[in-house]
Amino acid sequence: MTTHDTPKASGLETIGKTPLVELDASPGAVPVYAKLETFNPGGSVKDRIGKHILEGLVERGEIEPGGTIVEPTAGNTGIGMALAATRLDLGAIFVVPEGFSVEKERLMDALGAEIVHFSGDGGMAAAAQRAHEIAQEHENAVVPQQFSTPLNVEAHYRTTGPEIVEALDGEVGAVVVGVGSGGTLTGITRAVREQVPDVNVVAVEPEGSTFATLLGREREESPYKIEGIGTHDPAVTDLLEPDEIDDFVTVSDRDAHSEVQRLAAEEGHLVGSSSGAASLAARRVAEEIAAGQRNAPYDTVVTVFPDGGERYLSKNIYGHFDEWEGKT
Ligand code: PMP
């Protein structure tokens, strides 16, 4: 379904329209389809929001060409925003918390962004605070705030969601997506529900993450290595809509890691750990639908593989589990 078959004026126009591929490991009766976001020019799902958010800010006059964006990000959002910034004549400064992959940082740097390391306590919320301080020190600078701007959700509502609906002719039984900011899940859900009101919606988080407390579930907080999804502070994002989510499922580091390796060795998908978690969760949901344990309007499950495995080679993602060094 990738339709980049005509010449484009710029790399930004190659964002989106990524392939949707059936997983071999789907239970036969209920195929699982994964949207391969590595096909984006910056290699992740976050290219979509980088383009949409920055274009939106320029259109609304919230930032002028020549200005600077300052964003707290663990990496993929930085790469997506840096890509868009180069094309929109904007500068970019990213506040990067400790513990994330060095490859992402190198790529942000290569795209011309300035990196500010953040090693304080308080995770993303504290990094966001630092971003605001930096923005105040610059003229014509804004903090796009992926965790609160409706433009994040809108990017997926306008692109990722409709692409899924179109590829499956509207026959979407369940949407199973990992949550970091929640933009991907909320935007896809909103678009799919317009066509399929009773689609089953499942959020995926690492074991040790506490988003599910938003639905009143008990969760014990603990460190995890899966990168890009999960939180220890469910209030970190404004973009999740608990009323629209049917279920939260957790995946352990160990299971996500072995699924990443299985996806590479058996199916030829080179993906990161959040894709491993999403794949496993989506397969479980498909099995439950096949066994009549979960209601879904169609016998299909859709998930998203947000980024690629090459981004985590320095963390030994394809090594032994104990060598896989990650965010703790
Ligand atoms: N996986 C990876 C690798 C990511 O970088 C992100 C974004 N933090 C996600 C999943 C989750 O996407 P979202 O922020 O839209 O929930």
Care to describe what's here?
This protein is an alpha/beta fold and about 325 residues long. Helices cover about 35% and strands about 15% of the residues. It folds into two domains: about 210 residues, 3-Layer(aba) Sandwich (Rossmann fold); about 100 residues, 3-Layer(aba) Sandwich (Rossmann fold). The model has no long low-confidence stretch (mean pLDDT about 95). Strand 3, helix 2 and strand 4 form a beta-alpha-beta unit.
Task: Give a brief description.
With 328 residues, the chain is α/β, with parallel strands linked by helices.
Q: What is the residue-averaged pLDDT?
A: 95
Largest sheet: 6 strands, mixed
C-alpha end-to-end distance: 38 Å
Proportion of beta-strand residues: 5-15%
Binned, the helix content reads 25-40%
Count of distinct structural domains: 2
Distinct bound molecules: 4'-deoxy-4'-aminopyridoxal-5'-phosphate
Key terms:
alpha/beta, binds 4'-deoxy-4'-aminopyridoxal-5'-phosphate, 328 residues, 10 strands, Rossmann fold, six-stranded mixed β-sheet
Would you spell out the secondary-structure blueprint of this structure?
Layout: E1 20-22, E2 32-36, H1 46-59, E3 68-72, H2 76-87, E4 91-97, H3 102-110, E5 114-118, H4 123-137, E6 141-142, H5 150-167, E7 174-178, H6 183-195, E8 200-206, E9 247-251, H7 253-267, H8 273-290, E10 301-305
Helix pairs in contact: 1-2, 1-5, 2-3, 5-6, 7-8
The structure holds 4'-deoxy-4'-aminopyridoxal-5'-phosphate.
